[in-house]
Automatic annotation (TrEMBL):
Its EC number is 2.7.7.14. This is ethanolamine-phosphate cytidylyltransferase. Signal peptide: none annotated. Pathway: Phospholipid metabolism; phosphatidylethanolamine biosynthesis; phosphatidylethanolamine from ethanolamine: step 2/3; Lipid metabolism. One of its GO terms (molecular function) is nucleotidyltransferase activity. Keywords: Lipid biosynthesis, Lipid metabolism, Membrane, Nucleotidyltransferase, Phospholipid biosynthesis, Phospholipid metabolism, Transferase, Transmembrane, Transmembrane helix. The gene is LOC107002564. The chain crosses the membrane at residues 20-40. It comes from the Eukaryota. It holds the Pfam family CTP_transf_like. It is an enzyme of class 2 (transferase). Residues 51-180, 250-380 form the Cytidyltransferase-like domain. Residues 194-207 have a biased composition (Polar residues).
Length: 413
């Protein structure tokens, strides 16, 4: 009896020790696992990569807004720039050659990577290359038509496999519209137009909502009246300003028909400091210096194009033509620069030089422009190839008419 009674407490003790061991062991194991969660690095999620292609001929803020929207659909934006040969085969001769278009696209601040000589149509082979070699998740395009010469959709394959996403087209601007403005500009400077030139001018300017402005004596210049919203300006602007000790470089100009020459001089200017401030001259200032037919793009359009460039940190919308002492002090400017290739060589004037103040202060520098391109260069290219551009415009207008019949036009976000 005594031995049986004494055995029960011992069994209870053994059971208690066993349970306690399990509890302690479980706690230690749990803490170990919890500790590993903090020690071991978390597996990084692969970035979503999106692809957008285009000709990007005479690149404008509408193109930039499309790239901005595309970038918002992923983490990294890869852009394909269509080759000159492909553009000629499908649309007609481009105004700007491939190397200039590559400079323009690569300078857009929402672009992470650029593919040269991209095909006009997304073929099965190229689509597989995008998915396998470039790790593309989605192919992006605007809601405007992109039709091949046979009338088929250039993005049909991407849509078929469910890897296609669409963005809104930016209302109020197109390459066709810009060409029309250039031709109107040339018409005003020419006393007699050839029949083919007049026909081309009508083709490009027809249907675009432009009003007549009094650009000077005898002028009948029609310019864009596009007005951006405050939200659009914020979307294009950088979020950070210059630091208190930043070396601020200032460059100003019209920056009309923003082109590769502009991009390259901004790149050089940005490399001379920590922050690049770009002054965009008013329409009135540009007209006074270059004639009532200029600018082709209005102040707001020119400002958005510069804001989209990765080398420009901030712009002054409507900068004065003369750089004053007060302006240098207000914006804490350390250096004022000007390129050697420009429509106006005001920096060479002995009297009435708009840079007289920074020159006297020893903070003015002339930069050798990498490219010999001006706004007039682009206009001359258009005029010299007007017959080819007329055929290109007629083909595009016909396809777009078929596409937009019965559809309303919505401005893109």
């Amino acid at each position: 009896m005594g031995s049986e009674g004494g055995g029960r407490p011992e069994n209870v003790q053994q059971s208690s020790r066993f349970v306690a061991t399990w509890i302690v062991g479980g706690a230690v194991l749990g803490l170990s696992v919890l500790g590993l969660r903090f020690v071991l690095p978390k597996k990084k999620k692969r970035p979503i990569r999106v692809y957008m292609d285009g000709c990007f001929d005479m690149m404008h803020y509408g193109h930039c807004n499309a790239l901005r929207q595309a970038r918002a659909l992923g983490d990294q934006l890869v852009v394909g720039v269509v080759s000159d040969a492909e553009i000629i085969a499908n649309k007609g001769p481009p105004v700007t050659p491939l190397h200039e278009r590559m400079i323009m696209v690569g300078a857009v601040k929402w672009v992470d990577e650029v593919i040269s000589d991209a095909p006009y149509a997304i073929t099965e082979e190229f689509m597989r290359k995008l998915f396998d070699e470039y790790n593309i998740d989605y192919i992006i395009h605007g809601d405007d038509p992109c039709l091949l010469p046979d009338g088929t959709d250039a993005y049909a394959l991407a849509k078929k496999v469910g890897r296609y996403k669409q963005i809104k087209r930016t209302e109020g601007v197109s390459s066709t519209d810009i060409v029309g403005r250039m031709l109107l500009c040339v018409r005003e400077r020419t006393t007699v137009d050839s029949p083919s030139h007049a026909s081309l001018q009508r083709q490009f300017s027809h249907g675009h909502s432009q009003k007549s402005d009094d650009g000077g004596a005898g002028s009948d210049t029609r310019v864009s009246h596009f007005l951006p919203t405050s939200r659009r300006i914020v979307q294009f602007s950088n979020s950070k300003g210059a630091g208190p000790d930043a070396r601020i470089v200032y460059i100003d100009g019209a920056f009309d028909l923003f082109h590769a020459g502009h991009v390259e001089i901004l790149r050089l200017a940005r490399g001379l400091g920590d922050f690049l401030l770009v002054g965009i001259h008013t329409d009135q200032t540009v007209s006074a210096n270059r004639g009532g037919h200029r600018p082709i793009m209005n102040l707001h359009e020119r400002s958005l194009s510069v804001l989209a460039c990765r080398y420009a940190d901030e712009v002054i919308i409507g900068a004065p033509g003369e750089v004053s002492k007060d302006m240098i002090t207000t914006f804490n400017i350390s250096l004022v620069v000007h390129g050697t290739v420009a429509e106006d060589n005001d920096f060479q004037k002995e009297t009435g030089n708009p840079y007289a103040v920074p020159i006297s202060m020893g903070i003015f520098q002339v930069l050798d422009s990498p490219l010999d391109i001006t706004t007039s260069t682009i206009i001359r290219r258009i005029v010299s190839n007007h017959e080819a551009y007329q055929k290109r415009n007629e083909k595009k207008a016909a396809s777009e008419k078929r596409y937009y019949e019965g559809k309303s036009y919505v401005s893109g976000d």
